[in-house]
């Protein structure tokens, strides 16, 4: 059996998410602060000579060729004319449709890892540009540093917010990004802020009110959490992150959560775990 290599695909949080306008193609202009978590999926790669991209893990509700993992690998194969193949498996822990960017992170890890494993030597900027067509969040995961982002999320200014401990909770609903962004009554006119001069505490998530008005599961859990810690939705939901100064506090509140709420505790990371793995490659 040939050698296997594993790389992390971490979660992201949107520490705030302002919608500042909408483009003629329907996409939204955003201002957001991305931070990674030291928690996420793990992808394992086995190089083959078959020329084929094979995802060995099945996903409920996502066909093999629609999976962002497969799309990213095929895209890289196509642009680079690489004749090598790969078998990929994933230990999936991030909830889908949670606002944690799992799919985009998986795609970014495929691009970054195969760039190394297939010895393609694309730059980070080239990989991020390739990734943007797969998802608006792919470039930030390719760049791998916490950042204030603009445009659809692809204009990236690295920043270093405080690395809190977070309790991340998932209300028992899955919310599609497209559903939120296509809502006629979503707030789309938040005034742009200056990336070098803003107060994190006065920022917010423009999707949150829309979501809590429609999903009582999110509204109820958020109302419960804010009694204990500053709490906000990430991305278009449904996950909520609550900030703590130490791990024990986060774990204590986790132990008090209402029954049946999926959750994990993780630390904010301004450098993505993927970057650490790449730096140490070959392992
Ligand atoms: C909400 C965020 O997670 C914030 O980080 C991202 O902007 C969403 O990123 P994503 O899940 O990678 O989104 P994509 O797969 O690119 O887009 C999903 C759908 O959301 C809408 N969409 C997405 C991003 C954006 N800036 N404006 C949009 O209107 C589009 O209708 C698109 O069809
Ligand atoms: N490898 C993958 N992992 C997760 N979802 C995938 C993957 N490939 C395709 N998808 C599809 O993408 C959708 C969005 O998944 P994802 O986990 O990225 O959502 P999300 O966390 O809400 O992302 P965001 O924060 O970007 O809104 C899923 O519902 C699924 O249909």
From TrEMBL:
<protein>
    <recommendedName>
        <fullName>4-diphosphocytidyl-2-C-methyl-D-erythritol kinase</fullName>
        <ecNumber>2.7.1.148</ecNumber>
    </recommendedName>
</protein>
<keyword id="KW-0547">Nucleotide-binding</keyword>
<keyword id="KW-0418">Kinase</keyword>
<dbReference type="InterPro" id="IPR036554">
    <property type="entry name" value="GHMP_kinase_C_sf"/>
</dbReference>
<comment type="function">
    <text>Catalyzes the phosphorylation of the position 2 hydroxy group of 4-diphosphocytidyl-2C-methyl-D-erythritol.</text>
</comment>
<feature type="active site">
    <location>
        <position position="12"/>
    </location>
</feature>
<feature type="active site">
    <location>
        <position position="137"/>
    </location>
</feature>
<feature type="binding site">
    <location>
        <begin position="95"/>
        <end position="105"/>
    </location>
    <ligand>
        <name>ATP</name>
    </ligand>
</feature>
<keyword id="KW-0067">ATP-binding</keyword>
<keyword id="KW-0808">Transferase</keyword>
<keyword id="KW-0414">Isoprene biosynthesis</keyword>
<dbReference type="Pfam" id="PF00288">
    <property type="entry name" value="GHMP_kinases_N"/>
</dbReference>
<feature type="domain" description="GHMP kinase N-terminal">
    <location>
        <begin position="67"/>
        <end position="144"/>
    </location>
</feature>
<dbReference type="InterPro" id="IPR020568">
    <property type="entry name" value="Ribosomal_Su5_D2-typ_SF"/>
</dbReference>
<dbReference type="InterPro" id="IPR006204">
    <property type="entry name" value="GHMP_kinase_N_dom"/>
</dbReference>
<dbReference type="InterPro" id="IPR004424">
    <property type="entry name" value="IspE"/>
</dbReference>
<dbReference type="InterPro" id="IPR014721">
    <property type="entry name" value="Ribsml_uS5_D2-typ_fold_subgr"/>
</dbReference>
<comment type="pathway">
    <text>Isoprenoid biosynthesis; isopentenyl diphosphate biosynthesis via DXP pathway; isopentenyl diphosphate from 1-deoxy-D-xylulose 5-phosphate: step 3/6.</text>
</comment>
<comment type="similarity">
    <text>Belongs to the GHMP kinase family. IspE subfamily.</text>
</comment>
<dbReference type="GO" id="GO:0016301">
    <property type="term" value="F:kinase activity"/>
</dbReference>
């Amino acid at each position: 059996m040939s050698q296997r290599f594993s790389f992390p695909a971490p979660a992201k949080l949107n520490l705030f998410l302002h919608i500042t306008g909408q483009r003629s193609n329907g996409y939204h202009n955003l201002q957001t602060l991305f931070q990674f978590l030291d928690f996420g999926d793990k992808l394992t790669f086995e190089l083959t000579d078959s020329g084929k991209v094979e995802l060995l893990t099945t996903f409920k509700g996502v066909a093999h060729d629609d999976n962002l993992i497969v799309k990213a690998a095929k895209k890289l194969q196509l642009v680079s004319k690489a004749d090598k193949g790969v078998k990929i498996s994933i230990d999936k822990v991030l909830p889908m449709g949670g606002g944690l960017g799992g799919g985009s992170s998986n795609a970014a890890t495929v691009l970054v890892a195969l760039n190394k494993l297939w010895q393609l030597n694309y730059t980070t900027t080239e990989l991020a540009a390739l990734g943007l067509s797969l998802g608006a969040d792919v470039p930030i995961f390719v760049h791998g540093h916490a950042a204030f982002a603009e445009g659809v999320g692809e204009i990236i200014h690295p920043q270093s917010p405080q690395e809190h401990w977070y309790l991340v909770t998932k209300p028992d609903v899955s919310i599609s990004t497209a559903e939120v962004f296509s809502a006629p009554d979503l707030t789309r006119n938040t005034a742009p802020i200056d990336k070098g001069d803003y107060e994190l505490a006065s920022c917010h998530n423009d999707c949150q009110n829309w979501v809590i008005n429609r999903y009582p599961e999110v509204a109820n859990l958020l109302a419960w959490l804010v009694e204990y810690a500053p709490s906000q939705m990430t991305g278009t939901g449904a996950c909520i992150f609550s900030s703590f100064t130490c791990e024990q506090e986060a774990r204590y509140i986790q132990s008090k959560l209402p029954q049946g709420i999926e959750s994990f505790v993780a630390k904010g990371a301004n450098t993505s775990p993927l970057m650490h793995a790449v730096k140490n490659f070959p392992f």
